[in-house]
Design a protein that fits this description.
The structure is a single chain. By secondary structure, the protein is an alpha/beta fold. The protein has two domains: 98 residues, 3-Layer(aba) Sandwich (Rossmann fold), CATH 3.40.50; 103 residues, Hexapeptide repeat proteins (UDP N-Acetylglucosamine Acyltransferase, domain 1, 3 Solenoid). 13% of the residues lie in helices and 28% in strands. The chain is built from three helices and 24 strands. It has an eight-stranded mixed β-sheet with strand order 6-9-12-15-18-21-23-24, covered by helices on one side. It has a six-stranded parallel β-sheet with strand order 7-10-13-16-19-22, with no helix packed on it. Strand 3 and strand 4 form a beta hairpin. The longest helix is centred in the N-terminal third of the chain and has 12 residues.
């Protein structure tokens, strides 16, 4: 409950303060795990579609996107993450590129995830509970892995890509930028998924996919 939460103004609680762009479902999910899994205090949200002071879940809206730089300079937060979901990947990418190198971008890896020490994770990455990353997996900037994803050794996920719950990725797979890999999708080993590819739930990919668009079925077939 909000009344039981430690406020970011509490001087006895010295974690970094996280602000989140987007106060919808994903933004609130980031806030939940950031706080409850002891990664950050939560400063609040930036959202162009809500008024400053509005309550979104347990935390308030600080202002719109144009207020981010001035509030960072004023010391209102320490790091920033992007809570824009898979339906607006171009917006998510644009916001990341706008603030990367200007405002520190955060990273959250849930404590229940198993991440091999050889893995490399970029800025803005969000790894949800139960994920497993094997040896030498690479997650580029602004990647989201939803609950219980498993990525085998030597595979890479490109920037701004979403993996839905329980996606299974075999070894030596290359996933491009701006992809949306649907729930329970399976990718066999040694294939390449090009930029801008989406898969439907339960899709089984047994060969490389290059043409951007939506693929469904077992084996995967191009839909549109």
């Amino acid at each position: 409950m909000a009344s039981l939460r430690r406020l970011y103004t509490d001087p006895t609680f010295d974690m970094k303060r996280l602000a989140i762009i987007g106060s919808g479902d994903l933004g609130q999910l980031i806030a939940h795990h950031a706080f409850d899994d002891n990664h950050y205090q939560i400063a609040g949200f930036f959202d162009d579609f809500r008024a400053p002071g509005d309550l979104a879940g347990d935390y308030s809206v600080l202002g719109g996107v144009e207020a981010i730089w001035s509030q960072f300079q004023a010391g209102q937060f320490d790091e920033l993450m992007i809570g824009i979901g898979h339906k607006h990947l171009a917006v998510r990418r644009a916001l990341f590129q706008r603030f990367f190198g200007q405002v520190p971008l955060g990273r959250i890896v849930h404590s229940s995830a198993s991440i091999d020490a050889s893995c490399r994770l970029g800025a803005g990455v969000f790894v949800l509970p139960g994920c497993v990353l094997d040896r030498k997996v690479v997650l580029a900037d602004n990647v989201l892995l939803n609950t219980a994803c498993a990525i085998a050794h030597d595979s890479q996920v490109g920037a701004h890509t979403f993996l839905s719950p329980r996606v299974a990725v075999a070894g030596f797979v290359q996933i491009g930028e701006g992809c949306n890999i649907g729930i329970n999708t399976t990718l066999i080993d040694n294939i390449t998924i090009g930029d801008g590819i989406q898969t439907g739930g339960g899709t089984v990919v047994i060969k490389s996919l290059g043409q951007p668009g939506l693929y469904v079925g077992n084996p995967a077939r191009f839909v549109r």
